[in-house]
Amino acid sequence: MRRKLVATLAATALVSGLVTACSSEQTHGDKPLVLTTFTILADMAQQVAGDAVDVRSITAPGAEIHGYDPTPSDMAAASDADLVLSNGLGLEHWLDKLLTHSTANRVVATDGIEPISIENTNTPNPHAWMSPALAKVYVDNIINALARLQPESAETFRSNGDHYKQQLEEVDRQLNEGLSSLPQNKRTLVTCEGAFSYLTREAHMHEGYIWPVNSNKEITPSQIRNAAAFTTHHQVPAVFCESTVEPGPHEQLMRETGAADGGTLYVDSLSAPDGPVPTFLDLISYDVNTIVDGLKK
Ligand SMILES: [Zn+2]
């Protein structure tokens, strides 16, 4: 059995006013170009930047981001960029390739965040943005990076960033309120990718998954077996899967445990603008509602 990662790119899609980098011929006028590695960082940077800089994402809405392979036009866009913003914590194994010909300033959005390690390893789990509290650290790093890039707009970036951090606090409150409404015996989240370590820690939930982080490695029978044993042991009524992976292993887990389909969760990518999670704030709210609905059954 081989897990194929879904990599359907909506090449021309717009994300909340952001354009994905497709061509080095795209001009960005007098505004500095900030290139981000994925749509969630682009949304955060856009919230802070307003219209003072041009923000683009290398990967498109819905794309698988861990195993992405930069194209020649991505590399040209990186050469054109004034600032490249990445997640770090091992998310973008392809960053060196992207930046082969780029002299842009580089900023790692997770700078200063103490990572959670992937179970039984020293490898950091990269999905720190899934904690709204830690997302505020991302925002601070973005504010500082943009202020260095364009000092005359520093005041605007701080004020936009402060407003955005207040919205993150509000979504954090919704998260804690929503998930704490679950009875103690229903506070276990099982997903395909182990992308919810930061969110479940914040919400005091147990976390189970089929595989720890998306990669091109095959899913083994023992990974399915272990996830099934965990699901059965914790009497989990519904299991979930992420939007950027293929459904086969999730379906097998449901067959082997009798657990219901909890639905699709969004982690590594926003949806297209007309989809359910066009912004990061939407993504957290949507996931919390989906988790509560699925586990309350
Ligand atoms: Zn992921």
What does this structure look like?
The chain is built from 9 helices and 10 strands. The chain has 297 residues and is α/β, with parallel strands linked by helices. The strands form 3 sheets. It has a 6-stranded mixed β-sheet with strand order 1-2-4-3-5-6, sandwiched between helices. The chain has a two-stranded parallel ribbon with strand order 7-8. The longest helix is centred in the middle third of the chain and has 27 residues, at 154-180. The model is unreliable at 1-26 (pLDDT under 50). The structure holds zinc ion (ZN).
Structural class: alpha/beta
3D shape:
globular
Number of domains: 2
Radius of gyration: 19 Å
**CATH homologous superfamily descriptor of the largest domain:** Nitrogenase molybdenum iron protein domain
pLDDT under 50 segments (min length 5)? 1-26
- In CATH, the architecture of the largest domain is 3-Layer(aba) Sandwich
Major pleated sheet: 6 strands, mixed
Helix content: 25-40%
Q: Tally the beta strands.
A: 10
Q: Write down the CATH class of the largest domain.
A: Alpha Beta
CATH topology of the largest domain: Rossmann fold
> Averaging pLDDT over every residue, what do you get?
91
Q: How is the largest sheet built, in terms of strand order?
A: 1-2-4-3-5-6
What separation lies between the terminal Cα atoms? 31 Å
> What percentage of the residues does DSSP assign to strands (E)?
5-15%
